[in-house]
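[step 3/7] inverse_fold.run input=structure_tokens len=354
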């Protein structure tokens, strides 16, 4: 493994496939085995299902460990455990019959505890009937706490990591309550946070909170021992709200048909038109690039940004979406030549798999 973050696509792909992804899947397999021993059948199903269907989240998150130098495995351990918590709780909230915000808040205390090594664990299942998970969720939290407690410079990023983690948890609560309450809750939440994002609508802001990218970037730098308060400020301002907002809008863009069929909230539907959505994603992209230029390892962050755009636009679901024939070339051209390289490679990969 190279000591520095890769600067070229080939190096990024090589290190990802040679080192990061095998380690991610080795750790996921261990968590899957532990999930299979959960006593409660519903909790056991949701835990194993979240790993089987959402492993790609850990793949993407694992790439941030390339910023950690020799400590990359430790960062992967944190990313896999933290993302597994996120995906497990998302499943539990999605399948909830009560739609009780107190239940969702209690579950997401796990994420708050995970980024505070000094915190005692709480009863995360306090407001639901299913409780017997054999210590599964608590072990995930302990794993995150253990990794972060071993990073000597974690204290420099902890406030910002905790804040981004809390925003993500709050988003998950508002997203999963009764359908008729969601928009009003998110609008009020946006009003309370208006000073953070004065130029955003409530759906822009909500999208920018729904990604874990900023958490992983800050933790990865803390692991690599080259972090300071100025770096934290610049990373924070790049990833929240701009990079994260772009990420989630693209994610929601490709899921529009599925979300409509399932009655799920999709932020893309709140834009006045497909043209307005296209331009807004482009604006997020432009602002992200301006902020990336201020970061160390700018080439690496730029590749990740381009990779995110390419990965989503190359998804097979895109060609079925109205207006995609305009959306795809517009965003790829705005994203840059390298994005076309990533895009064509992902398309070729999909064809090979098929």
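[step 3/7] decode complete -> sequence:
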């Amino acid at each position: 493994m190279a000591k520095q973050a890769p600067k070229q696509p080939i190096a990024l792909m090589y290190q990802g496939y040679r080192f990061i992804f095998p380690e991610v899947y080795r750790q996921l397999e261990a968590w899957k085995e532990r999930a299979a021993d959960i006593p409660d059948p519903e909790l056991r199903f949701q835990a194993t299902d979240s790993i089987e269907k959402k492993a790609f989240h850990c793949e993407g998150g694992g790439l941030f460990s390339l910023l950690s130098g020799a400590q990359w495995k430790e960062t992967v351990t944190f990313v896999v455990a933290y993302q597994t918590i996120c995906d497990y709780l998302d499943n539990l909230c999605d399948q909830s019959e009560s739609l009780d915000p107190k239940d969702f808040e209690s579950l997401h205390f796990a994420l708050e505890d995970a980024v505070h090594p000094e915190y005692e664990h709480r009863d995360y299942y306090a407001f639901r009937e299913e409780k017997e998970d054999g210590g599964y969720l608590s072990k995930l939290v302990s794993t995150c706490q253990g990794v972060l407690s071993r990073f000597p410079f974690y204290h420099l990023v902890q406030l910002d990591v905790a804040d981004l983690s809390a925003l993500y948890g709050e988003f998950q609560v508002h997203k999963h309550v009764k359908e008729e309450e969601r928009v009003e809750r998110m609008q009020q939440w946006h009003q309370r946070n208006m000073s953070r994002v004065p130029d955003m609508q409530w759906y822009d802001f909500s999208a920018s909170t729904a990604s874990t990218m900023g958490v992983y970037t800050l933790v990865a730098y803390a692991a690599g021992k080259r972090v300071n308060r100025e770096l934290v400020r610049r990373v924070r301002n790049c990833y929240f709200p701009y990079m994260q907002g772009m990420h989630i809008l693209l994610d929601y863009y490709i899921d529009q048909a599925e979300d409509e069929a399932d009655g799920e909230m999709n932020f893309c539907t709140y834009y006045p038109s497909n043209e307005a959505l296209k331009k807004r994603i482009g604006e997020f992209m432009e602002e992200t690039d301006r902020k990336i230029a201020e970061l160390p390892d700018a080439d690496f962050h730029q590749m990740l940004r381009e990779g995110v755009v390419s990965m989503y636009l190359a998804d097979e679901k895109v060609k079925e979406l109205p207006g995609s024939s305009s959306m795809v070339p517009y965003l790829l051209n705005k994203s840059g030549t390298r994005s076309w390289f990533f895009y064509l490679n992902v398309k070729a990969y999909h064809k090979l798999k098929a």
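[step 4/7] annotate
The CA atoms of residues 156 and 228 lie 7 Å apart.
The two ends are 31 Å apart (CA to CA).
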